[in-house]
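Saturday, quiet lab. Running sequence design on the C-alpha cells for the scaffold JK sent over.
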C-alpha cells in the first residue's frame, strides 16, 4: 500500500482517486477502501474502516467534507430549514449559550 504522504491529488487511491469523493452513476458515494457504494459513506467508514476521520485523512478529503450522498444532503438541508422555522427551533436559537 502507498503511504498517504506519497499520494498527490488525483493519484489512484484504492477504488478511488486521492482527494476526490467518487460518486456512482446513481448518486451513491464509492468507498475508496472496498469499492462498495453508500448513501452514508461516513457510517460505513465508521463501522468498517477505522472511522470517518481516519478515512478522510487516508484518502485526502477535507475534514469539513460530509460523507453523505447529495440526495441525503438535500434532505438534511430541508429538514434543518423546517426545524429552525418551527417554534421549538426558534426557542433553541434564543436559548442562551446553546448555539454559541
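Result came back. Writing it out in full:
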Amino acid at each position: 500500500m502507498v503511504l498517504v504522504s506519497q499520494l498527490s491529488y488525483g493519484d489512484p487511491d484504492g477504488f478511488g482517486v486521492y482527494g476526490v469523493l467518487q460518486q456512482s452513476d446513481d448518486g451513491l458515494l464509492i468507498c475508496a477502501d472496498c469499492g462498495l457504494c453508500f448513501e452514508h459513506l461516513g457510517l460505513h467508514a465508521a463501522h468498517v474502516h477505522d472511522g470517518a476521520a481516519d478515512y478522510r485523512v487516508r484518502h485526502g478529503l477535507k475534514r469539513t467534507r460530509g460523507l453523505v450522498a447529495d440526495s441525503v444532503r438535500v434532505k438534511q438541508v430541508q429538514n434543518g430549514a423546517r426545524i429552525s422555522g418551527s417554534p421549538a427551533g426558534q426557542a433553541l436559537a434564543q436559548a442562551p449559550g446553546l448555539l454559541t
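Notes for JK: The mean pLDDT is 88. Residues 10 and 18 are 5 Å apart (CA to CA). Ask whether to fix the surface positions before the next round.
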